[in-house]
Amino acid sequence: MYYKCFLSLLAQFTSGTQGLITLEDQEIRITSRAGNLRWELSSKIFNYSEEIPYEMMESFSSTGRLQLEAANLYLQLTREDGSVSLIMWIPSPKKYTEFKAWMERYFEALSLWKRSRPDLRSEEVI
């Protein structure tokens, strides 16, 4: 499962800096940054059909970010479509085993956030 996604990403990166994969019914956008030294993994975890609550908006920085405990992990609020994405920066994997290990960590974080569905008030965030 991970191996096919890894090969697909490498093929997508030959013609650009962005790739899109679907793993475990989760769409993940991967962007190559800093001369392909690191990758940004991004996946939507919440969508709000109505206006985003003020308490939630207050928790995010002016750029729409909410830094989490891990240095390479944060939530990104996109006001235009009312979504919150989980973003993770990883070193660009050179081998499949590195890619698989990072994806497993990312899915662990995704799973925790999707299960908890916090309302993200500042006093309830990590």
What topology emerges from the helices and strands here?
Layout: H1 2-13, E1 18-23, E2 26-33, E3 38-47, H2 54-59, E4 65-67, E5 73-78, E6 83-91, H3 96-116
Antiparallel strand pairs: 1-2, 2-3, 3-6, 4-5, 5-6
| Major β-sheet strand ordering | 1-2-3-6-5-4
Query: What is the count of structural domains?
Result: 1
Please name the CATH architecture.
Answer: 2-Layer Sandwich
The third-level CATH topology is Yope Regulator, Chain: A
* Straight-line distance between termini: 32 Å
What is the overall shape?
Answer: elongated
Number of beta strands: 6
Supply the CATH class.
Alpha Beta
Percent of sequence in beta strands: 25-35%
Q: What is Rg? A: 15 Å
Low-confidence stretches: 120-126
Number of helices: 3
**What structural class is derived from the secondary structure elements?**
alpha+beta
Overall mean pLDDT: 83
Q: Main sheet? A: 6 strands, antiparallel
Series of secondary-structure elements, N-terminal to C-terminal: HEEEHEEEH
Helix-residue proportion: 25-40%
Structural notes for this entry:
The chain has 126 residues and is α+β, with helices and mostly antiparallel strands. The chain has one domain (2-119): Yope Regulator, Chain: A (2-Layer Sandwich). The chain is 31% helix and 33% strand. It has three helices and six strands, in the order H-E-E-E-H-E-E-E-H. It has helices at 2-13, 54-59, 96-116; strands spanning 18-23, 26-33, 38-47, 65-67, 73-78, 83-91. Strands 1-2-3-6-5-4 form a six-stranded antiparallel beta sheet, covered by helices on one side. The protein is elongated and about 45 Å long. 13% of the residues are buried.
